[in-house]
Design goal:
Helix content is about 50%, strand content about 10%. By secondary structure, the protein is an alpha/beta fold.
């Protein structure tokens, strides 16, 4: 037989039962191929959906962080911005988390809150301060919670809305987690493996690009440009997520090349040892007044009387604050140590991050001269880590709310008058020369209506809304009472036999919000980080008084950085020191700020 005949014979000889089996087998092969193709399509659809979720997360985070749609579309679509890169990174994070969890899309419940909540807080922070959210800000969440009562009093409806919104969000989140057991499709090992193989190497590679101090050609081609010197532009160009990631390693301050104890010891110096040259030992009281500022600088507003006559008559100049509306601890750090935050990573908070062991300060200097050193602040000692920081700075005693007697309040904050009377009492009970450092609290915002029984200074502000007028009246009354407290302290000092040096300055401008824009004083409700000299001075200068009970006011100091205050304090006290009067003195001759 020919081969064709053989084939015909085989077919003919096949039984009906065998033919049915062959058909079933052939159908099974086709079905397997269809299922294989279906799995690939399903995986592709899941990855596309994950990409859309990533895009939605980045879009929402930018809207929340910026507080506006301005620039968001350009950021997400322009080839000059890394918006699509941010989407890609979030996509990889979602894919990796799905691979670990074992269900498609369930990673959204983890990644979305971790990205959207910080973005929301960044937008809220910029309503009151000049800067976006930094990783270091997460260290003082407890401080924010402590100040919530004041915010609730000032914005009760907003507080209620946020509370309800928060409860709804938490309830929805819990419900989603509960439902996710059935809603999100389970992944097989192949799907999980593909996601892991795709995401892990790319995430590791991307992480290697995120050192802002190292050059990366790949990063440049992706239009990711670290701008650590201008954080507002850094966040605007790179977006919240990438800029926030850039700031994570910035908290680590690396030692400069060549730095060691031996190198420091071998340095040639021509500095004089610390000594006294005046023969006197004056007592020193430094008062950093919370949000103290001159509201009469807003020229479009008229007041029934000068709220700060004592300060104005004794004013030595201005402190050019590095902060606006908050971050008191950073100004305090500079004023006590003479060290500038300009040499630390942007957004650093030394009190929270770096002071873990003894650090030279005015307290250690004056203690070395036989002075009693005390710090005063009528609030919780843990706030800004002051319990530990003051000890590291050399203060032998710290009087906080926990150790002080109950004080009269203005709103929820201790009054300047009560704190001043307490300082005077401590001074009267101290025989030795002393260095006292006090941080007031009464001037803290927000400036709610009815903080005071009566506002005694009238405000004529035709361009301000009723709400802004109310806030300004409350703030101005606080300035008046701070001024009166300074007068009381000076009157007491004049009666003392030993010379008393009093230094008073504001830590930053108050968070008056729309008062600034409605009055035309500022273009925004917060200060700018880069502007002309005159604009920067308007937005950062606070009053400075350096006064002696025996020699009067030191005049014409000009505008100085808080880090230069130790120079003026030590010099007026009659001492010289290699750093405080030597180096800082030479700096002051060349740079005012």
């Amino acid at each position: 037989m020919t081969p064709s005949h053989d084939l015909e014979f085989d077919v003919v000889q096949t039984s009906p039962k065998s033919r049915i089996a062959n058909v079933v087998s052939a159908f099974g092969s086709v079905r397997e191929r269809e299922l294989g193709n279906s799995s690939i399509v399903q995986l592709a659809i899941q990855l596309i959906n994950t990409g859309l979720i990533a895009a939605a997360i980045v879009l929402l985070s930018e809207i929340m962080a910026r507080g506006t749609m301005v620039d968001v579309v350009e950021y997400m679509t322009s080839s000059n911005h890394p918006g699509l890169v941010a989407v890609g990174v979030v996509f990889l994070m979602l894919a990796f988390a799905d691979a670990i969890i074992g269900k498609a899309y369930q990673s959204t419940l983890l990644i979305a809150p971790l990205t959207l909540l910080p973005a929301f807080f960044s937008g809220q922070k910029q309503l009151f301060l000049s800067d976006p959210l930094y990783p270091s800000d997460l260290l003082f969440g407890r401080q924010i919670l402590q100040l919530l009562p004041a915010m609730v009093v000032a914005e009760p409806m907003k507080a209620v809305a946020l509370a309800i919104g928060g409860l709804v969000a938490v309830a929805a989140f819990i419900a989603l987690i509960w439902k996710s057991r059935k809603v999100f499709p389970r992944l097989n090992l192949t799907g999980r493996g593909i996601r892991a193989a795709l995401s892990i190497p790319l995430l590791v590679g991307f992480a290697s690009l995120m050192d802002p101090m190292a050059f990366s050609a790949v990063r440049d081609r992706l239009k990711i440009l670290p701008m650590m010197w201008d954080q507002n532009e850094n966040y605007r160009h790179n977006g919240f997520l990438l800029a926030f990631a850039f700031n994570v390693p910035m908290a680590n301050v690396a030692a400069p090349d060549g730095y060691s104890n031996v190198a420091i010891t071998d340095m040639q110096t021509d500095l004089l040892p610390a000594s006294i040259f005046s023969g006197r030992r004056a007592d020193v009281i430094v008062v950093m007044s919370e949000s103290l500022w001159d509201p009469t600088r807003m020229s479009s507003i008229r007041y029934s009387t000068d709220p700060m006559p004592t300060i104005r008559a004794s004013q030595s100049g201005h402190v050019f604050s590095p902060e606006f509306g908050g971050m008191t601890a950073n100004v305090e750090f500079e004023a006590l140590t003479g060290f500038s935050n300009a040499f630390l990573p942007y957004g650093s908070i030394p009190y929270q991050q770096y002071i873990r062991r003894p650090v030279p300060s005015l307290a250690t200097f004056f203690e070395s001269k036989g002075y009693v050193t005390k710090a005063f602040h009528p609030f919780q000692g843990w706030f800004w880590n002051r319990n530990n920081v003051y000890q590291s700075l050399g203060f032998r005693q710290f009087h906080s709310e926990e150790t002080m007697p109950a004080m009269d309040k203005r709103g929820i904050f201790a009054s300047d008058d009560a704190l001043t009377r307490y300082i005077i009492k401590e001074a009267d009970n101290t025989d030795e020369p002393f260095f006292f450092f006090a941080v007031t609290l009464q001037g803290h915002g927000p400036y709610e209506r009815n903080r005071y029984v009566k506002n005694t200074i009238g405000v004529d502000a035709p361009t301000l809304s009723d709400r802004s007028v109310s806030a300004l009246e409350t703030y101005t009354q606080g300035v008046k009472e701070a001024d009166q407290s300074l007068k009381d302290l000076m009157d007491w000092a004049k009666k003392r036999r030993r010379e008393t040096i009093i230094v008073l300055f504001g830590d930053h401008l108050p968070p008056l919000n729309e008062v600034y824009t409605e009055s035309g004083y500022m273009a925004s409700v917060v200060a700018t980080r880069k502007a002309s000299v005159e604009t920067m001075k308007r937005e950062h200068e606070t009053p400075l008084v350096i006064w002696s009970s025996k020699r009067g006011t030191q005049k014409d100091i000009g505008s100085v950085s808080p880090s230069q205050l130790p120079y003026y304090i030590v010099h007026m006290a009659g001492y010289r020191h290699p750093y405080y009067t030597g180096m800082l003195g030479r700096v002051a001759e060349r740079f005012a700020v």
